[in-house]
Amino acid sequence: MKITVIGLGYVGLTTALCLTRCGHQVIGADISSEKIMALNAGELPIWEPQLDELLDQARDQEAIRFTTDIAAAVSEGEILFICVGTPAGENGRPDLSQLRSLIKPIAWHAKEGAVVVIKSTVPIGTTDTVEKGLYLLSGGKSWDIVHNPEFLRQGKAVTDFLHPDRIVVGTRSSVAASRMRELYRAIDAPFITCDPRSAEIIKYAANGFLAMKISYANMMAQLSESWGADIEAVIKGVGSDRRITPSHLQPGVGFGGSCFPKDTEALLAMGRDADCPMPLVEALQEINRLQPQRVLDKLEQELGSLQGKRIGLLGLTFKPDSDDLREAPSLAISRLARQRGAVLQAYDPLVRDYPVAEVKLVTDPHVLLETCDGIILVTEWEEFRKLSWRRLHSRLHPLVLVDGRNLFSLEEMQRIAEETGLVYLSVGRPPVRRKERKSLMYSV
After folding, report:
1. Which residues pair with 81 in a beta bridge?
2. One of 18, 83, 259, 372 is an active-site residue; which one?
3. Which residues contact 136 (CB under 8 A, 6 or more apart)?
4. Which of 2, 54, 125, 136 is most buried, by CB atoms within 10 Å?
């Protein structure tokens, strides 16, 4: 099939390249000439595992081409994917300006019988609104329109696209549903059809539930800490229940990224518009908002005032295997730490430009181990498991490490604490520090 994908961000580019793997011919369109030039040169404008291999294969097989000419791209596609951004706007409502800008070129240039697929995350009722707009601007043509939400995790987007838990297709057209089945024929997954509004809610409901699990884990972590319990044992006991599972029951510095913060805000906005209160969503947001403060409070309890203290951040992106800083917890931690007078340094394997100017970036994480008074592990990059703790021997004063992701085991950190004097604090677990050595008194 001939597919056009409009909007080549994380979702659009992953969609375009994965559809070439499924055997389709794809045109990728975006208004950014810089992005298109990079892609035509074989360079990715984003960092996402496996995408580089897919791009090379698609170019070698001439299965994809890229353009800034939206109208021309629209005119060639049998199925048109809309993958433009819908960032948070006023009062938590998504900004749909990029989506609205596509209604006219699609209405004027799409071929007869083309299926229009909205893959962007949009508020309830948006698919119906777009369908009406296409009808009016095209002079009364009927359109097969679909909402096909994405469930991609950054860092695992290719795997999630090619091996999904389900494919959701929201449409009132049996023809469109059949075409979508044909499109995804190479992918083995349950195929769920429903009306567009239900499909729109499915996306928000899924992300809201996952965000709730993270905040619930953080709430239980605080309770565990208060009573001297271990949240890891709690999660193992709770997550072993097949009705619950351990997925996203992960305490830490809080959730971030392009989805959970924006989508929970949108849920609240849609609730307000429908006069439908959503206190659970409000609570999970408040728990998440407090997590950066809690990790800084841990540092202050050990170091005293942070005024003038050298604080290091290990990891800056909102999750590992991604270069995305959108709503990353490191941003809130950096700003709050600066307000408390801390002097900040940071290391992240992918970040070369950080929006908080007062944060000095270093190229070796061991610089933080050797020079900082305290460190917060913000992102659980795998390389941090291989840090050389021997560097701590050169310090005059013990390092305080707050593990905001519970990356390390208490047993491992106890051994390092005994060797180096490290003070290790985590989320929802007992603190680790060097055990007092009792001196032996001999009488003569």
Report:
1. 5, 117
2. 259
3. 107
4. 54
Distance between CA atoms of 221 and 388, rounded to whole angstroms?
28
Instruction: Report d(CA 308, CA 306) in Å as an integer.
Output: 6
DSSP conformational letter for 88:
B
Binding-site sequence positions for NAD(+): 30, 35, 86, 121, 262, 326
Backbone angles phi, psi at 289, to 5 degrees: -65, -30
- Determine whether 259 is an active site residue: yes
**How large is the C-alpha radius of gyration of the chain?**
25
Q: What's the burial of 444, exposed, middle or buried (CB within 10 Å: 0-12/13-18/19+)?
A: exposed
Residue numbering of the annotated binding site: 30, 35, 86, 121, 203, 256, 262, 319, 326
**DSSP structure class, residue 436:** P
- Helix or strand holding residue 115 (H, E): strand 115-118
- List binding-site positions for substrate: 203, 256, 319
> pLDDT tens across 318-349, in order?
999 999 999 999 999 999 999 999 999 999 99
pLDDT in tens, 396-418: 899 999 999 999 999 999 999 99
Q: What distance, in Å, lies between the first and last C-alpha atoms of the chain?
A: 94
Spans in the chain with pLDDT lower than 50 = 439-444
Alpha helix (H) residue ranges in 389-443: 410-420
Q: What is the pTM of this model?
A: 0.93
Helix %, strand %, coil % of the chain (to 5): 45, 15, 40
Give the pair of three-digit tokens for residue 57: 């294969």
Distance from C-alpha of 115 to C-alpha of 128, rounded to nearest angstrom: 14
d(CA 129, CA 196): 11
Question: Contact at 8 Å (CB) between 127 and 197?
Answer: yes
Measured CA to CA, the distance from residue 321 to residue 326 in angstroms comes to 14
For helices 196-226 and 126-137, give the axis angle rounded to 10 degrees: 150
